[in-house]
Amino acid sequence: xxxxxxxxxxxxxxxxxxxxxxxxxxxxxxxRARALRPWVPVAEAYAEIAAPRLEDALGALGGRPVxxxxxxxxxxxxxxxDIPGRVERLRPDALRGRPLGPHPLLADALAxxxxxxxxxxxxxxxxxxxxxxxxxxxxxxxxxxxxxxGRRLRxxxxxxxxxxxxxxxxxxxxPAAVAALRAGGAxxxxxxxxxxxxxxxxxxxxxxxxxxxxxxxxxHDAVARLLLRRYxxxxxxxxxALPVP
Length: 245
What we know:
Blueprint: E1 9-14, H1 20-36, E2 42-46, H2 54-60, E3 66-70, H3 77-90, E4 95-96, H4 104-116, E5 124-130, H5 136-153, E6 157-161, H6 174-183, E7 188-194, H7 200-206, E8 212-213, H8 221-241
Parallel strand pairs: 1-2, 1-3, 3-4, 5-6, 5-7, 7-8
Helix pairs in contact: 1-8, 2-3, 4-5, 4-8
């Protein structure tokens, strides 16, 4: 389908990874978004490590209208400061969307990944394996995501940080969270990967000691629909902000 003139480009900005499988997962997600809404032009960019870098992707778009949406699951430095600031410097006219999470659609995708990993039985416990952040907002978002998943699964879900470290938002290191659930009497511990794509962080989830680990969210339909929703929100917000003559 030919793209209608004047439709803003959805520039999806992922964090970046050295993993070829991780880049492939991002591209599969964007392909799914294109399939859901073929009249919206979708472009790919990365904050670091992978190509095309954000600045290169923006430059390649010329003067076309653009909505930059962070492919990130929680607030933090990249979502709140780095990506919006770089977009503002190069394209002050560009619209900037919110990060993807937390959102009920992500809980739907997470629950589907849990089912695909074998589901849950009586006595099984679930830990949300989030990337972790020193930003308190990022920690709050991860806890909200855990609560949303808990509602879908009808059991408590705790948070574990893949990165760990210090700071108000860093949270309990994932291996410690897994060990605590097991020590508390859990029959099995399932780590629900709150990550977008394979790579270094997913490898750490796999090494956390959990009995089962879900696949990353990847190109799940719910994630693609949420990406398009963030694009729509940014456009609608810009319209609402226009002064009334």
